């Protein structure tokens, strides 16, 4: 059995319970280098207690508050599936997210169903 993404969107549409909404410069630097002001507008830098600059993500440029849903996730028309509009440059914690993991189960478990894979 394998844990395959069902594109349910739960990991992106319920950020209230998301595991990680803070990034390091390693995630943000490619956006800076590529001039992705559209993405950077949704981040807020701050300095932690160790003097490291970190970035709160998915902070509304209009309200200054973190949003409950990723601004880059979109529901596919006429389907119960979601896609990431910044998939090629999404943050490391998004890339590392695994359906069926403890984090997946902690956000509602909708993506934890296992699918059978054929063996050769």
Structural features, described:
The chain is an alpha+beta fold and 120 residues long. The chain has one domain (10-106). It is 22% helix and 15% strand. The chain has five helices and five strands. It has helices at 10-13, 25-33, 37-40, 92-96, 102-106; strands spanning 22-23, 43-47, 53-57, 73-75, 82-84. The chain has a three-stranded antiparallel sheet with strand order 1-3-2. The chain has a two-stranded antiparallel ribbon with strand order 4-5. A hairpin with a 5-residue loop joins strand 2 and strand 3. The longest helix has 9 residues, at 25-33. The chain is globular. It starts with 9 loop residues before the first helix and ends in a 14-residue tail after the last helix. Mean pLDDT is 81; it is low at 112-120.
How many DSSP-defined strands?
Answer: 5
Number of helices: 5
The assigned structural class equals alpha+beta
Describe the global form.
globular
Largest sheet: 3 strands, antiparallel
- Give the amount of beta strand, in percent: 15-25%
N to C succession of SSEs: HEHHEEEEHH
Strand order of the largest sheet: 1-3-2
Low-confidence stretches: 112-120
Mean pLDDT level: 81
Secondary structure topology:
Elements: H1 10-13, E1 22-23, H2 25-33, H3 37-40, E2 43-47, E3 53-57, E4 73-75, E5 82-84, H4 92-96, H5 102-106
Antiparallel strand pairs: 1-3, 2-3, 4-5
